[in-house]
Fold Cell division ATP-binding protein FtsE.
Amino acid sequence: MIQLKNVSKIYNKGIHALTNINLSIDKGEFLFLVGPSGAGKSTFIKLLLKEEEPTEGSIVVDHQDITKMSRRKIPYHRRNISVIFQDFRLLPNKTVYENIAFAMQVIEASSKDIRRQVPMVLGMVGLSDKAKQYPHELSGGERQRVSIARAIVNNPSILIADEPTGNLDPETAWEIMKVLKQINRRGTTVVMVTHAKDIVDTMQQRVIALEKGRIIRDEHRGAYGYED
Ligand SMILES: Nc1ncnc2c1ncn2[C@@H]1O[C@H](COP(=O)(O)OP(=O)(O)OP(=O)(O)O)[C@@H](O)[C@H]1O
Ligand SMILES: [Mg+2]
């Protein structure tokens, strides 16, 4: 469902962020993307989201070469591939319910669908009783669960997570991993960038390691593989 062929990204200052990446990710996979700071992990994600364009190569997502995608189709692409971040990025003046509903209003979902979907995803992340609270009234783990609920409310086929547990204590990080794994079991492809060695080593999923913009390792049931 995701295929990169000979993908390179050179930023305009001549920095080679990614070099000749060839990679295929199947529907329903759960994979970790690891590597030292500056290895190109966030660049990889930006290419998938079409926030940056590759200098060379093709990127196919759900049978569509997104490097050739017409402007008109970009909003649909961004609906299909959703993202969560280390710093949650919730809207501070909206309640938990409103934060999630907003993601549906943006794509002009009907209020009937919103009333049905928002409680459903809140239940999935275990926050049904927090709907009326504001982000500042939540713990870090709860905030991340809201951001996951928001990311999945429009049923994306791919969920990308850029260091989703980076701001959380180990126990809370594991709660987030359980939620991500549960979403993956329902069929969503999950790509997670992380520096959390223990999580990668314990979860036994596919691990792709980048170094200086190249894939140096791609293992099923892999390990983190280096010391930070
Ligand atoms: N917009 C940009 N313009 C120029 N160079 C950039 C830009 N964004 C990233 N880079 C460079 O590209 C390389 C890869 O950066 P990237 O952000 O993808 O690394 P990363 O693996 O996500 O690192 P980290 O673990 O620190 O988040 C780095 O050398 C970085 O300085
Ligand atoms: Mg990064």
